[in-house]
Amino acid sequence: MVHFTAEEKAAVVSLWAKVNVELVGGEVLGRLLVVYPWTQRFFDNFGNLSSESAIMGNPKVKAHGKKVLTSFGNAVKHMDDLKDTFAELSELHCDKMHVDPENFKLLGNMILIVLATHFSKEFTPQVQAAWQKLTAAVANALAHRYH
Amino acid sequence: MVLSAAERAAVRALWTKLGSNVGVYATEALERTFLAFPTTKTYFPHFDLTPGSAQVKAHGKKVADALTRAVAHLDDLPTALWALSDLHVRQLRVDPVNFKLLGHCLLVTLARHYPGDFSPAMHASLEKFLSHVISALASSYG
User: Fold this and answer.
1) In this predicted complex, what is the ipTM?
2) Which segments constitute the Globin domain (chain A) (predicted)?
């Protein structure tokens, strides 16, 4: 189980409070699809993903991004219990969606980068390190029930 | 995933904008790497890794110069970076996974300092550029 110090938890929680989940979620997922185009394989039914502007403006991408980041908000609330928090989602991503867990790491890195663009002042190396730990732990939790 | 003409132009343009600050950003990227990925510190037991360290700053300058050389040789990275690759493989014996970690922290640093320039397309171009650099650096591993 990953242990977060009080400072790490504070760094995560205080930045999360400032995040516009709808806006950031859409941007995170959009960037994933632009920067790592093979990830589009999971979104054949999302319509036009043919260019950067098509992807970033795509309403399905924005909606799904919001859903994903809202779920990530759960991680912030349960930093001491990520494996149980994401157990069901882990099974879903394995059995129903067949997503390679490598993608969770890629998405985690997109979250970091989008946070850096939105919160230049707050995103110190220490804050980044706490968020890096959280996204890695969430990626592990989501991969935990794979078989 | 070859860099297109547009992607090369984007990377060169951003590098020109960074100007003489490349060293500052490379140093920040190193500091971020050591904090976010503590395993990377195992390659620097001889360094003072406290924030503001002169050794880290000097090393940041070396990394910056190498990246600037890479930007100037986008058409032939393996040749341009061969000596560095040899150094990292034979002498320093760095596991190549660490190059990716530094690359990621460099992207975070640039995103933080140039949010207005860091569009998804620019992000994608930089990601591609860095993966080519990493590939060239790892090429001596055989």
Assistant:
1) 0.78
2) 3-147
Phi, psi of A128 (to 5 degrees): -60, -45
Is B31 in Cβ contact with A125 (below 8 Å)?
Answer: yes
Which of B123, B130, B131 has the highest number of chain A CBs within 10 A, making it the mutation to test binding with A? B123
CA trace torsion A50, A24, A120, A51 (10° rounding): 0
Predicted model pTM: 0.87
Contact (CB<8Å) B120/A113: no
Tell me if B115 and A129 make a contact (CB, 8 A cut-off): no
- Could you tell me if B35 lies within 8 Å of chain A, comparing CB atoms? yes
Residue A145 has a pLDDT of 92
Hey, how many other C-beta atoms are within 10 angstroms of the C-beta on A47?
A: 12
Tens of pLDDT along B97-131? Answer: 899 999 999 999 999 999 999 999 999 999 999 99
The reply to whether A40 touches chain B by the CB within 8 Å rule is no
Report residue A73 CA to chain centroid gap: 9
For residue A9, give Cα distances in angstroms to A19, A101, A126, B45.
16, 25, 12, 29
Asked whether the beta carbons of residue B36 and residue A125 sit closer than 8 angstroms, the reply is yes
CA distance A51 to A23: 19
B59 Cβ contact list (under 8 Å, min separation 6): B27, B30, B47
